[in-house]
Amino acid sequence: MTIPLDSLYHYIDEQFDGNALIYRFYPHGSKNQSNLWPLRDLQPYDTIIKPIVICHDQEPLQFHWYTADAQQDYINRHFDPVLHDHIQSCNLDFDTWANIYKKKILLHSEINSDQVELYRQRFTTAYWWSHAVIARDWYRYAEIDPALVNRPRKIDYLFNVYCRAWTGSRRYRLQFLELLHHSDVCSSTRTRFNPYDNSVHYSKYTDTEFAFDTNSADANSSANYCASDVCTSLFDVVLETVADEKRIMLTEKILRPIACCQPFVLMAGPGSLKILRDYGFQTYSKWFDESYDDIADPQLRMQAIVRSMEKAKQNNIMKHADNIFAVAEYNKRYFFSREFLEHVTNELRTNLRAASHTAWSKRQLPQFNDEQLSAQVSTHDPVTVTMAQDLCKNYIPTNPLLWNQ
Predict the structure, then answer these.
(1) Which phi and psi (to 5°) does residue 231 adopt?
(2) Does 309 share its domain with 166?
(3) Which residues sit opposite 38 in a β-bridge?
């Protein structure tokens, strides 16, 4: 995704008063190890003497993608062979392997995640809902958009479904569309579907022939909304990026209908609706059966959602539209409120503080000889090994986390 987001990471950098070394994927939305770049230009020995924060907070964590075995080409291109033994246990942190702090911070956006557990051997992890801040920026016009604020709703469909991408962690979406296709509510649902993803046709994975409207949006469409779709449907059925048995990662997808004052149904990890309520939002259990949110098995959860959609149609849920939209209006006001923003940013500061105290309370001298140190620092600045050794032995770091009261 080419939408500029570095201001977000400069905000994180400010939490450390510029004393930490922030890494983020650039261009934003990229996933390659070679795209993990420092936010600021490196100074000599930064990767050795500065506390490290790696931001993997936009895409789902994929531990196995970044092991030394999986990144062997990257290692061979960027590291002297004398260093290879030292970086075999690295994951994401290849470029900062010789850091003097015992652990680094991994900033992520996942809850109940096995992937986070895998990273805790090398990192102290810190959670924050990055997409909440991103979505407030992306959908800011929705707060005042006349097409949303003044336009009367003409409900043509009970439900609206977008399905642009369906490979990788999103493969479950094809299964959901199969269930929808065979349900009684399909004709009451506007479904926009991209038949190709990563140059693969969906027929490779299902024998069901879909007759949905074509979704021709690109990846940048995540930062936009369609006012006419919002105003002509009652519920937006959100198919989140991750819908595992445990893991929750709420993205801009669920926040788009909230910003646009649209009620929603959410296919994500179990307990996702509860997470939204914990953040201060309201959901629609008075009129729509949300018991699906308690179901761990993704397949059973999808089936329960489609059954709830069918039940809503059978019970003529439209007769409750005024009450349903009153909740949606509350959610929109709260989403754009200072209260919600402070909830998210205060949580970020609290979690970073706890992580920094754990990760950066102990230092360890890099365990390498002169030849290895020379190979390490030469990739950043051609200075003498003696200077590097002196820095490692004599550098006395202060607490890098400075909090503005």
Answers:
(1) -80, -10
(2) yes
(3) 23
